[in-house]
Protein: Swiss Army Knife protein DSP-PTPase phosphatase domain-containing protein
Amino acid sequence: MLPGASPPRGAESVRMSWDPQAPGVLVLPSGRLVRGRALRRPRPDAADPEFGVYLLGKAPPPMAWESRWLRWPDFRLPADRARAAELLREAWQRSGAERVELACGGGRGRTGTALACLAVLDGVPPGEAVAYVRAGYDRHAVETPWQRRYVQTFL
Structure:
């Protein structure tokens, strides 16, 4: 492309921040990449995130990168839904230019629910977001009926 020229119509401005083939990385329709993971398992042998949202019933230990804690008990919903929406929007926005990760203890229920909410923010219809995450992240993601309902009513 010539200096000063506009990018081609429809060209993605999203940079590839994670390896899209790496375990736990969900590719959103826009091309944004977000990593989900289980905090009870060893950290993947990959670059550290630049931003993380941790979905736990109690505060996580300090991380070496910028992070936020969202109080979210296991098998439940976020304790503060307005704060959840705020943090998930921030994660989605930052995923366009940074390595973003979402994580809970097991990496399936809460993490899958949060990833499905990011998929909704990225344009996936709420009724299809759980299936999208199960196909692209973990077939067991989003574990409870109330987590599925939460995704359907997220926006």
Notes: The CA atoms of residues 71 and 80 lie 7 Å apart. Helices lie at 81-94, 109-121, 126-136, 145-152.
